[in-house]
Amino acid sequence: xxxxxxxxxxxxxxxxxxxxxxxxxxxxxxxxxxxxxxxxxxxxxxxxxxxxxxxxxxxxxxxxxxxxxxxxxxxxxxxxxxxxxxxxxxxxxxxxxxxxxxxxxxxxxxxxxxxxxxxxxxxxxxxxxxxxxxxxxxxxxxxxxxxxxxxxxxxxxxxxxxxxxxxxxxxxxxxxxxxxxxxxxxxxxxxxxxxxxxxxxxxxxxxxxxxxxxxxxxxxxxxx
Length: 224
Ligand SMILES: [Zn+2]
Hints:
224 residues, mainly alpha, Arc Repressor Mutant, subunit A, Beta-Lactamase, two-stranded antiparallel ribbon, 5 strands, binds zinc ion
């Protein structure tokens, strides 16, 4: 799996304000009801003027919207971007492949149906077909949901290789904002776990193996 997020980029070729903008968007991603400027300033440890300018710029591009109460939420422009981003997963156009099957399922059951994959520790919705019921499923392609919070995430978690599962659990336990079911994927601990350089994950992986050789290898890699 390719590295994602901060681990994939070198500091030399990064633009700090875009990193900060992504921090703002990532925090809003985890807040269904939006977040206030004060919360963003406190959680991201950034100057208020920086957060304000980022939000103002994002608002001009419809990437965020202000609620009636003055909080900020992710904006509808992201839906168009997400629909394109989700269209190619691992070289496979999953939405196109899935569509006829989803539509047949929806026609047979009257229910909304979706196809999701695990992406960077979250559930990524790739394709959706509408149901016939009045209160149908409201997820949209490109939406990211917590893995623990629905049947699809649980099914995918149940069949993950032990090492990938250990990585996801380790983020929940070790995230600087944790223990939490929704690790931020951006703190030092999360980035180290994503990059495979966290000892906690190596140790948990050892627990999932039974060979004594595995333990020897782990012991050799631990620097005391
Ligand atoms: Zn974290």
